[in-house]
Amino acid sequence: MSTKEKRCYDGYLVQKLDPVVFMMPYIMPRRTDSEVMIDLKLDLTKVEAFIREHKEDMPDLTLYHFVFASLVRAAAVTPQINRFITGNRIYQRRTVRISMMVKKRLEVEGKESTIYPTFEKTDTLAEIVAKTKAVTEEAFAKLDDVSNGFDRLVGILYAVPPFILRGFVKFLMFLDRYGKLPEVLVNLQPFHSAFFVTNVGSIGLPVIYHHLYEFGTTSGFASIGKKETVTSISPKGVIKTTRVLPMKLVLDGRICDGYTYSCAFRTIRKCFEHPEWLMESYQPQQM
């Protein structure tokens, strides 16, 4: 690693960008003005069979682990989608951090927390399941602990007058814009992740497009909805019904070009069509 390498949070400054890509953060400085959206239908035929086959060796395996794993694998195959913009500069992440809101009980008053496990690009599906389980159990254990760090911070902020709180938040956003937010604050919240995932299907809602956030570095928001059955007709007139997982992605269009995103979407589809691929650690020669 070069001693002159400019670092920011968990990433490093990308050098020798295409001129158009280099200029985009200056032409379009806001993340919410740069959102691009896509709607995917992911075939569940092999994934659901795979989950049934691995009940013994991976009893905690669920559908959203495949969502995590497909995003991690896409970031390994096309690392350009694992970038973020801070201070009008484009940085490359070293790891893949994914945030997701979880509820301990599906009730209106049920307590909720946000998990943000960090994955290596070479992680297998089994490793992703284990890491996700560990951070989820830790988050649930802290739900009833009023002494945890985030709750203490929120408790302090509740007592701050609104005009002071507005100034404090603006100061934090100023620090964040230039990658100077203290590490302790970065680790206390979910907005410095490669992807934010919401599973609205688990609460009975149809899939949605979810906006990105100006605060933090999250460049992609993935929403998954209720499973659907779709009917298609082949060129030979054969009618086929398939169970699919609807996924809608909202992405920062400035971090890479459309072709790169297209390659990432193909990787996500491959993960669902060939789930056994995720059991092996990713090696570049696989593609």
Blueprint of the fold:
Elements: E1 7-8, E2 11-13, H1 19-27, E3 35-43, H2 45-53, H3 63-77, E4 83-86, E5 89-93, E6 96-103, E7 112-115, E8 118-119, H4 125-143, H5 149-158, H6 162-177, H7 183-186, E9 195-199, E10 220-224, E11 228-233, E12 239-252, H8 258-273
Parallel strand pairs: 6-9, 9-10
Antiparallel strand pairs: 1-2, 2-5, 3-12, 4-5, 6-7, 6-8, 10-12, 11-12
Tags for this entry?
34% helix, eight-stranded mixed β-sheet, alpha+beta, four-stranded antiparallel β-sheet, 287 residues
Give your account of this protein's structure.
This protein is of the alpha+beta class. 34% of the residues lie in helices and 23% in strands. The protein contains eight helices and twelve strands. Strands 3, 6, 7, 8, 9, 10, 11 and 12 form an eight-stranded mixed β-sheet that branches. Strands 1-2-5-4 form a four-stranded antiparallel β-sheet, with no helix packed on it. A hairpin with a 5-residue loop joins strand 11 and strand 12. Helix 3 packs across helix 8. The longest helix is centred in the middle third of the chain and has 19 residues, at 125-143. The mean pLDDT is 89.
Beta-strand residue percentage: 15-25%
Separate helix tally: 8
Regarding quaternary structure, what we see is single chain
What characteristic shape results from the CA principal axes? globular
Rg = 20 Å
Mean pLDDT: 89
What does the main sheet amount to?
Answer: 8 strands, mixed
User: Alpha-carbon distance between the termini?
Assistant: 26 Å
| Total DSSP E strands | 12
What series of H and E elements makes up the topology?
Answer: EEHEHHEEEEEHHHHEEEEH
